[in-house]
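ARCHIVE CARD
Drawer: 12
Card no.: 0347
Subject: one protein chain, sequence and derived structure
Cross-reference: see card 0346
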Amino acid sequence: MPVTTYALANQKGGVGKTTTAVNVAAYLAEWGQRVLVVDIDPQANATSSFGIDKRRVEPSVYDLLVGRAAPSEVLLHTDRPGLDLLPSTPALAGATVELVYLPRREYLLRQSLASLDGEYDYVLIDSPPSLGILAVNAMTAPQGVIIPVPCEYLALEGLSQLTRVMDLVRRSLNPALRIRGLVMTMYDARTLLSRQVVEEVRRHFPGQVFNTIIPRNIRLSEAPSYGQPIITYAPSSTGALGYAALSRELLSGDGQAVPRKLSISEERPGQ
């Protein structure tokens, strides 16, 4: 079966993009999928979220993009069986200058990942909060884009620009590209604003918003500082339940077998 590749994208920072990439990847791997996370963000937060010191990563995605290393040389195995990582480093910020002078610079990531065909069921690309050359590489490689949208004021701000860039990439670089879905994050059921934002986004993107809504949850914020996905750090938290449900919804929409539940902890949600 061919690999399913999705980029996590939003040019705004702090929307739950890395949190979504890391935690969906962890649940998919828990359920038997072979998963690769590609950290193409110079902030390297996905790398740190797996307990890897981004300052000591060598080689990294940076070396992959500029042709100094093969994917097999960059690949790291995480503590989660079936879940691997192509790590990033702050040095990747310098690649934006070097990439400008390389031929077919928009296809560098896609070409690199092609050598891993058949080794993974899912590839999730954590892209930077920008619309530069790294983000374009992230959108040229996958079949679809998952867009995290926070349930906050001005949630739709910038989304029209993102979709315009996606249209340009689709027309000129990657005809298969589509919106796989928008996922609402940081939802606070106590506020009218959160409910209004969900309604507004669903109105602007009919049929393209995941049913699952990710709640605002302190455990989700804490987990990266311990280098663990939420499935390990707090498996019975409301944040964990949200990402378990989102991962099931993703699998179901992709025509994959969906586990009914992960563990007994899902029946006893915590904080």
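Annotation on reverse: Residues 181 and 207 are 9 Å apart (CA to CA). The chain has one domain: 4-258.
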